[in-house]
């Protein structure tokens, strides 16, 4: 897919065919301003995207290329392009819902995009970033996959050990020390390293976005950050040493601070990024303050990956009412991070050599709780 076009090439995976993914993808690629900054290649099923466009009142303006064709192996000189994959027909389901077919299809799209993002510089199939539309974790389970979500699959395929789930919105940036884990398991999973990693990678994210010396606030785990050991010892035993380690590396990190007041300060601009100890501690303020424009970012991969901060929303899928705001922001942020990495420095985006690139068979809206992360 290499051309002389300066716009980054963004692989946009369609997500679960039965969710709102096809609709928000169709709306996003119809945005003329978005197409000015990014070359979009959709990994999905053309007929599903056409149906979604019809429901949204959008005239299809993309070019279809069969994923099995010779043309798909060389540079794609027109955009936007839909790489049309042969996948199980999830649309045979009577109602939008978790399904084995939806899991098989959405997993295929993601795997193919990862393989193309991992290709070396100069490979005509290489893409600069991946933006993932929502998958349904239950659909993946029905299809026989045991990945907790996109993030864990991406990290495994990219062979990275240290990675972080982060979220960016106009009012807040949040990085997580733990992701899809039971709350009661935190005591065994939270370590100095698991707290240091999001501080370190979160600082890199801020630098990629143009903030040279970001101020980072780190949440405590317990109420009032433990009240000096009255409500738990994790702050002194785990979180404080991680902050000290980060500060020794020149990162302007502070804490542990009480989460109930910290997010108010961050939203007011005092902090450039907040490190939360667990999923809901960080996600509730993000979604409360700006759910339509929040974007999920996986930091630490050898390529840029973002996604909208909402789920499959089966309850409104197929109605044409799904907002594409978060998807549009996800593509914009992916483009900004690709450019920002080259300008400001950050993670190395060139994939390591010798990796196996084979695909393993491995408003009025209320989003459901199936996250796009």
In short, what is this structure?
The chain has 373 residues and is an alpha/beta fold. The protein has helices at residues 21-29, 32-37, 46-56, 100-117, 137-142, 150-157, 186-189, 192-208, 234-248, 259-267, 279-290, 325-344; strands at residues 9-13, 39-44, 63-66, 81-84, 129-132, 164-168, 173-176, 215-219, 252-257, 273-276, 295-299, 304-308.
List the helices and strands and how they pair.
Blueprint: E1 9-13, H1 21-29, H2 32-37, E2 39-44, H3 46-56, E3 63-66, E4 81-84, H4 100-117, E5 129-132, H5 137-142, H6 150-157, E6 164-168, E7 173-176, H7 186-189, H8 192-208, E8 215-219, H9 234-248, E9 252-257, H10 259-267, E10 273-276, H11 279-290, E11 295-299, E12 304-308, H12 325-344
Parallel strand pairs: 1-2, 1-5, 2-4, 3-4, 5-12, 7-10, 8-9, 8-10
Antiparallel strand pairs: 6-7, 6-11, 11-12
Helix pairs in contact: 1-3, 1-12, 8-9
């Amino acid at each position: 897919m290499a051309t002389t076009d300066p716009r980054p090439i963004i692989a946009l995976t369609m997500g679960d065919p039965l969710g709102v993914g096809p609709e928000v993808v169709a709306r996003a690629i119809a945005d003329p301003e978005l197409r000015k900054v990014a070359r979009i290649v959709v990994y999905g099923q053309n007929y599903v995207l056409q149906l979604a466009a019809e429901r949204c009142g959008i005239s299809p303006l993309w070019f279809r290329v069969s994923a099995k064709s010779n043309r798909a192996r060389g540079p794609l000189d027109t955009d936007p392009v839909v790489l049309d994959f042969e996948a199980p027909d999830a649309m045979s389901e009577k109602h939008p819902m978790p399904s084995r077919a939806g899991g098989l299809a959405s997993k295929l799209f993601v795997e193919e995009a990862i393989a193309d993002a991992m290709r070396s510089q100069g490979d005509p199939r290489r893409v600069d970033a991946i933006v993932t539309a929502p998958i349904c974790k239950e659909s993946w389970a029905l299809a026989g996959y045991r990945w907790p979500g996109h993030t864990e699959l991406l990290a495994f395929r990219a062979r990275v050990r240290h990675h972080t789930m982060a979220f960016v919105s106009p009012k807040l940036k949040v990085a997580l020390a733990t992701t899809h884990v039971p709350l009661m398991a935190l005591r065994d999973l939270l370590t100095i390293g698991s707290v240091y990693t999001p501080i370190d990678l979160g600082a890199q994210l801020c630098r990629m976005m143009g903030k040279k010396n970001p101020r980072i606030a780190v949440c405590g785990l317990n109420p009032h950050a433990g009240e000096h050991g009255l409500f738990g010892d994790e702050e002194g035993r785990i979180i404080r040493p991680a902050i000290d380690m980060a500060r020794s590396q020149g990162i302007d990190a502070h804490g542990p601070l009480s989460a109930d007041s910290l997010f108010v300060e961050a939203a007011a601009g005092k902090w450039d990024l907040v490190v939360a100890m667990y999923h809901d501690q960080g996600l509730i303020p993000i979604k409360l303050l700006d759910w339509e424009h929040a974007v999920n970012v996986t930091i630490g991969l050898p390529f840029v990956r973002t996604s909208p901060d909402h789920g499959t929303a089966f309850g409104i899928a197929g109605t044409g009412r799904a907002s594409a705001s978060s998807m549009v922001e996800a593509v914009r942020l992916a483009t900004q991070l690709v450019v920002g990495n080259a300008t400001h420095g950050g993670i190395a985006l060139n994939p390591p050599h010798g990796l196996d690139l084979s695909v393993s068979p491995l408003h009025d809206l209320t989003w459901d709780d199936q996250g796009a992360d």
